[in-house]
Write a structure and sequence with these properties.
By secondary structure, the protein is an alpha/beta fold. 50% of the residues lie in helices and 10% in strands. Bound molecules: phosphoenolpyruvate (PEP) and manganese (II) ion (MN).
């Protein structure tokens, strides 16, 4: 699964591959005006949601099939390729009937294997590029599973879209980036193109630039950015859409670093990192052995595994120490909690032996 494989004729392989256009197709005029502005700026692939998965009923659920005729007109009048989200077999048949060039599967759909399988069945024998958004929940296997279902149906032009992960506690981001998840996807499938969706990660137009830059620095292949001529009055996702002229600024400000540059200068630093990782692993293994000895002691003395005050003490002391050493306290909390969780698991095993 390579980037070249999802490229449409005439779209060059240079990073980033850009897909831009409104969250939703609203009216023929809105679709056509966005398409003309984007085409004039050299964008090659347009997005527009025709069927919209909304959290609650009563909102704008997409214009439906009539919007597909507008996308066809976009193709005819501007030469742009057009793309949309499909969530059911009916969506697939309709989109194909109107000549949509690229499809994507939305985050809520990827989370549902029945729905993905139905889409895969409907696409069997069709040679169209399909991008799979990550599932709303941070489950890499589910994301890969959806790609496998499409691949098993014979589709070869596959790619992934990272759009962040839903969380109950929304702070900065609408959907947490959890970059390590797409990075792990890339590690396992180095040839699979990955496109970042900074609009749905950020949920705010001012976050699109920094998120896009971050995606480029992580060697993502492309960007899908919601673009609307009158973003404030968009019928869906108004706060995260940018105008075509802002999109142009965002794209031209991107610094694209070479992902395949010679790594010679880095080899010494990388050797040092490898050594540190060795030491870290050895220390960690030693710590686990001691923790098991403590487990044995607790068993002999009929004590409970988790001693809350002791845990609080370790956590607070080490987090403030880490922060004094210039490390991010939140990062240290995550590391210490993971280590503690594993120690507890091992001690519980010992107690139950
Ligand atoms: C969209 O692209 O407009 C959309 C609904 O995205 P997601 O599936 O990522 O929520
Ligand atoms: Mn949207």
């Amino acid at each position: 699964m390579k980037l070249e494989s999802i490229l449409l004729p005439g779209v060059d392989a240079k990073r980033p591959m850009v897909i831009a256009g409104p969250c939703s197709a609203e009216t023929e005029e809105q679709v056509m005006s966005a398409a003309k502005a984007l085409a004039a700026d050299g964008i090659k692939i347009m997005r527009a949601g025709i069927w919209k998965p909304r959290t609650k009923p009563g909102g704008f659920e997409g214009i439906g099939s009539q919007g597909l005729a507008w996308l066809k007109k976009v193709k005819q009048e501007t030469g742009l390729y057009v793309s949309t989200e499909v969530a059911t077999q009916k969506h697939v048949y309709e989109a194909l009937k109107y000549g949509v060039d690229l499809l994507w599967i939305g985050a809520r759909t990827t989370a549902n294997p029945f729905a993905v399988q139905e889409i895969a069945d409907a696409l069997e024998g069709v040679d169209i590029p399909v991008l799979v958004k990550n599932p709303v929940n941070p489950d890499l296997e589910l994301w890969i599973g959806a790609l496998e279902r499409l691949s098993n149906a014979g589709l070869t032009k596959l790619g992934a879209i990272h759009r962040g992960f839903s969380s109950y506690d929304k702070k900065i981001y609408r959907n947490l980036p959890q970059w390590h998840i797409p990075i792990e996807l890339k590690r396992r499938y180095p040839d699979l193109p990955i496109i970042c969706d900074p609009s749905h990660i950020g949920g705010r137009r001012d976050l699109i630039q920094p998120l896009s830059q971050q995606a480029m620095d992580l060697n993502f292949d492309g960007l899908i950015i919601e673009t609307h001529c009158d973003p404030d009055n968009a019928w869906s996702d108004a706060s995260q859409q940018v105008t075509p002229s802002r999109l142009k600024e965002i794209l031209s400000a991107l610094v694209i670093r070479d992902g395949k540059q010679s790594t010679e200068d880095l080899s010494d630093l990388r050797r040092q990192i490898d050594e540190m990782d060795d030491q870290l692993l050895e220390l960690m293994a030693k710590r686990m052995r001691i923790s098991c000895e403590i487990g044995t002691f607790k068993k002999e003395h009929n004590m409970t595994v988790v001693q809350t005050e002791r845990y609080d003490e370790i956590l607070n002391k080490r987090i403030s120490q880490a922060s004094g050493m210039g490390m991010n306290p939140e990062f240290m909390r995550v590391v210490l909690e993971a280590i503690h969780e594993e120690s507890v698991r091992q001690q519980v095993d010992i107690l139950n032996k």
